[in-house]
Amino acid sequence: MHRIVSKTRLSPNVTRLDVEARRIAEIRQPGQFVIIRRAPKAERIPLTIADTNPVAGTISLVIQSVGKSTQDLVAMEVGQAIQDISGPLGMPTELIESGRALCIGGGVGTAVVHPIAQGLHQREVPVISVIGGRSKEWVIFEEELRRLGEVVVCTDDGSYGRKGFVTDAAKDILTAGGITIVYAVGPVPMMRAVTNLTRSFGVHTVVSLNPIMVDGTGMCGGCRVDVGGETKFACVDGPEFDGHKVNFDLLADRLSTYRTHEQSSLDRHDHNCRIGLGK
After folding, report:
1. Whether residue 25 is found in the same domain as residue 55
2. Per residue in 74-97, pLDDT tens?
3. What is the CA radius of gyration of the chain?
4. pTM for the whole structure
5. Phi/psi class of residue 236: alpha, beta or left (left: φ > 0; alpha: ψ in -120 to 50)?
6. pLDDT tens-digit profile of 174-207?
7. How far is the first Cα of the chain from the last one, in angstroms, to the nearest whole number?
8. Is 56 helix (H, G, I), strand (E, B) or coil?
9. Is residue 265 exposed (0-12), middle (13-18) or buried (19+ Cβ within 10 Å)?
10. In the Cβ-directed half-sphere of 69, how many Cα atoms lie within 13 Å?
């Protein structure tokens, strides 16, 4: 059992939970993730380890509440415990040792970019982060990233920072030159747009993929993706890949496979809560 020691609302539908997981906190590396199971019969959910505190023995999980399982998870309170946390899983980020890095985060993807920026900062690699959200209230991890380097904030409506998409700011930075590598994490359309942009500049780009995942060990095959014409499993070969080789069309198609089932489950959950049957 993994006790929740703190809970923070980061944006209207994104929550941070700091939970006890000492062994994971001690060995986790940037880019790795865990699979959690809230209770014995609950769904397994893959989540990036957004931060760690090895001294306290805690890891930080950032959850976007979009369906029944994530709603149940963020409804938990401090003092309650998550049944299972498996990890760290996946391949660590390949961090450069010199040069200058551009980290781009869209929405909840900014939490995934954070440990990458941490790792680069520890190697004394200069980092500039471009992060975005629909409006100011949707921007997350700005303060944490500012401790690691320069940050450019973009909002769709211009309510905070620079008005426009993260690709607009990234284009200006790439045009100025000096960027060795780009790390981009966010919705599929955003990562696709970033890779199209960086391809024209000839800058190596790493993306973190979020396909449907069940066991996290390569057994189920649900997280398969097409990278450079080869089938890869995001859980064991990734989750990070060369963005210029990713088949984003196939990724987007796979992500929509169970959308109808997910919505049906959420509708039943909401109906039961309204009539007092609980979860």
Report:
1. yes
2. 999 999 999 999 999 999 999 999
3. 18
4. 0.89
5. alpha
6. 999 999 999 999 999 999 999 999 999 999 999 9
7. 21
8. coil
9. middle
10. 16
Rounded Cα–Cα distance for residues 14 and 48 (Å): 13
Q: Which of 38, 79, 32 is nearest to 59 (CA)?
A: 32
Check which CATH number belongs to the domain holding 24 and give it. 2.40.30.10
CATH code of 219's domain: 3.40.50.80
**69/151 same-domain check:** no
Mark which of 31, 57, 89 sits at the end of a domain.
Answer: 89
User: Residue 236 falls within a domain, yes or no?
Assistant: yes
Interatomic CA distance for residues 232 and 47, integer angstroms: 19
Structure tokens at 254: 């796979």
**What is the spatial distance between Cα 216 and Cα 65, in angstroms, rounded to a whole number?**
21
Q: What is the dihedral of CA 175, 179, 183, 189, to 10 degrees?
A: 10
The structure tokens listed for 132 are 């975005």
Residue 13 Cα distances to 26, 143, 180, 208, angstroms:
29, 19, 34, 21
| Domain extent for 51 | 2-89
**Does 279 fall in a domain?**
no
Tokens, residue 70? 């994530």
Element (H, E) at 107: none
